[in-house]
């Protein structure tokens, strides 16, 4: 950040009085611009023994597969975000079952939350951010073409839990990916 969004003056990175971490502080109006993690919320929606997946039409990870998910908006709940993202990316109507995975991704300051959900009908279609939307059985999942580690982790837990006949809430912390 270079300029204050409140007054347009320059900002400096420094530790404000009484704080412990450096923040962008406006040198003119004194506004402290806190930057905090972003929430990414989505859904693992099920139809019979199949899962709803989207192939991404946007960067990052264009062309790879993911569960419908995206950044939470202001003034909505996590459940509303999961339902909205599924409608935007897959034009699909779902009913949430329960919160299933919470994945901390601290090196990019994100928290990912995926709900289990029930697809209400099979009248889905790619939204503007998707190339393709499909219902896949476990043996059809393109494991080498999953866009994000939090999504692959959620899918793996889902199929393992389904085999055991019992789903439980999972929390995971992802380290930075190995250097390429
Ligand atoms: Zn300012």
CATH classification, class level of the largest domain: Alpha Beta
Beta-strand content: 35-45%
Helix content: 10-25%
First-last Cα distance? 28 Å
Low-confidence stretches: none
What name does CATH use for the topology of the largest domain? Answer: Nucleoside Triphosphate Pyrophosphohydrolase
User: Which structural class fits the helix and strand makeup?
Assistant: alpha+beta
CATH homologous superfamily designation of the largest domain: Nucleoside Triphosphate Pyrophosphohydrolase
Number of distinct beta strands? 11
SSE arrangement, N to C? EEEEEEEHEEEHE
The overall pLDDT, averaged over residues, is 97
Provide keyphrases for this structure:
alpha+beta, Ubiquitin Ligase Nedd4, Chain: W, eight-stranded mixed beta sheet, binds zinc ion, three-stranded antiparallel beta sheet, 180 residues, 2 helices, 11 strands, Nucleoside Triphosphate Pyrophosphohydrolase
Describe this structure in words.
This protein is an alpha+beta fold and 180 residues long. It folds into two domains: 1-35, Ubiquitin Ligase Nedd4, Chain: W (Single Sheet), CATH 2.20.70.10; 38-173, Alpha-Beta Complex (Nucleoside Triphosphate Pyrophosphohydrolase), CATH 3.90.79. The chain is 16% helix and 36% strand. The chain has helices at 78-90, 149-164; strands at 11-14, 23-26, 32-33, 38-47, 50-56, 65-66, 69-71, 94-105, 110-119, 130-136, 170-173. The strands form two sheets. Strands 4, 5, 6, 7, 8, 9, 10 and 11 form an eight-stranded mixed sheet that branches. The longest helix has 16 residues, at 149-164. The structure holds zinc ion. Zinc ion is lined by residues 4, 6-7, 9, 26, 28-29, 31.
């Amino acid at each position: 950040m270079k300029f204050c969004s409140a007054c347009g003056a320059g900002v400096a990175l420094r530790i404000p009085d009484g704080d412990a971490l450096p923040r962008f502080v406006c040198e003119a109006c004194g506004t402290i611009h806190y930057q905090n993690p972003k929430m990414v919320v989505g859904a693992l929606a099920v139809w019979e023994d199949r899962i709803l997946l989207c192939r991404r039409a946007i960067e990052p990870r264009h062309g790879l597969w993911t569960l419908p998910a995206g950044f939470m908006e202001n003034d909505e709940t996590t459940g509303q975000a999961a339902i909205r993202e599924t409608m935007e990316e897959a034009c699909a109507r779902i009913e949430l079952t329960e919160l299933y995975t919470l994945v901390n991704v601290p090196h990019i300051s994100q928290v990912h939350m995926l709900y289990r959900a029930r697809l209400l009908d099979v009248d889905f279609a790619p939204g503007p951010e998707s190339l393709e939307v499909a219902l896949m059985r476990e043996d059809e999942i393109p494991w080498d073409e999953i866009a994000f580690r939090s999504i692959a982790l959620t899918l793996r837990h889902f199929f393992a839990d389904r085999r055991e006949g019992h789903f439980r809430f999972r929390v995971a912390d992802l380290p930075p990916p190995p250097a390429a």
